Amino acid sequence: MTCDYIQLANDGVQRLRPYQPGKPIEELQRELGIHDVIKLASNENPLGPSHRALDAARHALDQIHLYPDGAGYSLKAALAERLGVGADQLVLGNGSNDVLELIARAYLQPGDEAVYSEYAFAIYPLVTLACSARPVEVESHLFAHDLAAMAEAITERTRVVFLANPNNPTGTWFNDHALDAFLARVPERVLVVLDEAYFEYVEESHYPDGLRRLARYPNLIVARTFSKIHGLAGLRVGYGVAHPQVADVLNRVRQPFNVNIPALAAAEAALDDVDHIENSKSENTAGLVQLAEGLAALNLEQIPSVANFVAFDCGGDAQPVYEALLREGVIVRPLGGYGMPRHLRVTAGTARDNERFLAALGKVLGDR
Ligand SMILES: *Cc1c(COP(=O)(O)O)cnc(C)c1O
């Protein structure tokens, strides 16, 4: 081979580090021969999906010889009604990651800049580099977005700012005053992507709803997902809500059938299952308390979280702790790739899973 196919790739792609997903349960079972494995690594809903969503997905299987409705008419109508927005403001994605990528593809060119925070969701630099645009990472404050510094970082070349509220992997959030002050400072030509993947979980009274700001800020795009509280991560459905012109642009670049038939059906049914959403929320709130108390009892410093996970400091290199937990059959997420080598992130599971995680962690740390 005389060609270097890495060198032939687009500039940004050469520098891109692939996303590191949580370890799949089957992989650990294969590698260590452990059967009783719990995964608290990918912020999935420990209660699973809504039964109504499952039934809808099963019924939809009868139709899978057909292409899906590429426009997602029915799901969009349901979302528009539930969210109080126009159907023309919506773009559906194969997960909200797809929506984030569509934004980058449509609005970022080589030489353009995309601003995001240190310790923010790893997909932001990834989609930016995939378009050979320049990622501009702004120093965080106590692991949280420093919105004033992010506003300062906007230049003539900035086209997109990515905000995660709450942020993954830190679980930190910003309030309505901070968001409004930020939006007021951003020029209209700069798109602000407000990633609200964990929106439904947050209970803080000053937590801002991005949708309520769309009318005032035509440069705002709100991204949400069915992967988290709705428990449909495996089906891949998310959506963006934006000004109709922006939604039009994003709909131009997406693949014509980017959301599949069972996913469309399940998502629509999930929206209506208010009980499942409420149960998932209260299970999570209890789980966060259980984890916070358990970690405190182990004298581990944690980053206060309003999402469905918590990041904690292992008091040293987290990698051996992560690996020892794997041997106990517990999968969590190491954060070295985020520049947080001392931290692990654990998803709030059922009371039983949390207990098992805390017991395993206590054992592993005691063994050090
Ligand atoms: C999980 C998550 C998403 C959603 O991912 P999907 O592609 O919808 O599964 C988006 N943003 C953040 C910050 C997340 O943690």
UniProtKB/TrEMBL annotation:
The lineage of its organism: Bacteria, Pseudomonadati, Pseudomonadota, Gammaproteobacteria, Oceanospirillales. It comes from the Bacteria. Keywords: Amino-acid biosynthesis, Aminotransferase, Histidine biosynthesis, Pyridoxal phosphate, Transferase. Pathway: Amino-acid biosynthesis; L-histidine biosynthesis; L-histidine from 5-phospho-alpha-D-ribose 1-diphosphate: step 7/9. The modification N6-(pyridoxal phosphate)lysine is found at K228. Signal peptide: none annotated. Its EC number is 2.6.1.9. It is an enzyme of class 2 (transferase). GO terms for biological process: L-histidine biosynthetic process. Its cofactor is pyridoxal 5'-phosphate. InterPro entries: Aminotransferase_I/II_large, HisP_aminotrans, HistidinolP_aminotransfase, PyrdxlP-dep_Trfase, PyrdxlP-dep_Trfase_major, PyrdxlP-dep_Trfase_small. Homodimer. It catalyses: L-histidinol phosphate + 2-oxoglutarate = 3-(imidazol-4-yl)-2-oxopropyl phosphate + L-glutamate. This is Histidinol-phosphate aminotransferase. The keyword Transferase applies. Residues 36-361 form the Aminotransferase class I/classII large domain. One of its GO terms (molecular function) is histidinol-phosphate transaminase activity. Belongs to the class-II pyridoxal-phosphate-dependent aminotransferase family. Histidinol-phosphate aminotransferase subfamily. SUPFAM superfamilies: PLP-dependent transferases. It comes from Alloalcanivorax marinus.
